[in-house]
Amino acid sequence: MMVLQVTGENVPQPIDSFVYAGLCPFVLNNIKKSGYLKPTPVQKYALPIIMSGRDLMACAQTGSGKTAAFLLPVIDALLSDPRDLIISGHHCEPHVVIMSPTRELALQIYSEARKFAYGSTVKTVVVYGGIPAYHQAQQIMRGCHILVATPGRLIDFLSKGRITLSSVRFMVLDEGDRMLDMGFLRSIEEIMEHPTMVPKEERQTCMFSATFPEDIQHLARKFLHNYLFLGVGIVGG
Ligand code: ADP
Ligand code: MG
Q1: pTM for the whole thing?
Q2: Which processes are annotated in GO (biological process) (predicted)?
């Protein structure tokens, strides 16, 4: 049985088709090209919530389609309300930051983002640890709208002043429970509380997790603003 729970005030109506999500034709066309016929349960609820500008804490099991649930509204916002990229040749000011616990997951999000933004001017860059930072530094210096990053490498660039968070419109924390299992709590706090970070009232923040233990609930209360909770499937914790 599919367990579904949405809590919070003024919950937007779920959608049954991508066509009713209010996405621009460009994004709808890329969805079609990717072969997605209809939204998964988490997408049915998460899309209208994020499209309406609300913060979201979503829990759904692995494989339920959480990536597109946040990428589609994010790319739509970048296209519908384009803002200039500041390219200084010294640092990078991403408009969207997506945090992912591992290089593999970061690369998956990166390729999905490229797929849904294909043919647009939206620039996506991925950074992760385990390899020298030089090439990644060169890439971010050319400017990026969407930055997909593992916490350690992001902090590395932040501490060198190579990335600033003062133009962030969307902050996405993917795989929250895995982040904490991997010991990234301090890193997440450091990023979310970075001196350059846009206040939570002035950005949109979305957290995704497969489970909802107390430490994730704590993070949600701390870093989300007037958020909705969405639980799909068997939610533990
Ligand atoms: P999660 O992040 O919840 O673990 P993913 O976003 O990685 O799940 O999605 C799992 C798989 O399902 C991916 O291969 C993705 O391309 C596919 N997928 C996601 N949404 C849809 C959809 N609406 N229709 C068909 N396939 C989808
Ligand atoms: Mg995922």
Answers
A1: 0.97
A2: regulatory ncRNA-mediated gene silencing
CB within 8 Å of 206: residues ≥ 6 apart:
46, 50, 55, 56, 57, 58, 70, 170, 171, 172, 173
| Ligand 1 pocket member 65 (CB < 6 A) | yes
Can you tell me the ipTM of this complex? 0.99
- 112 alpha carbon, closest ligand: 1
**With 90 as the cut, is the pLDDT of residue 233 above it?**
no
| CA of 71, nearest ligand number | 1
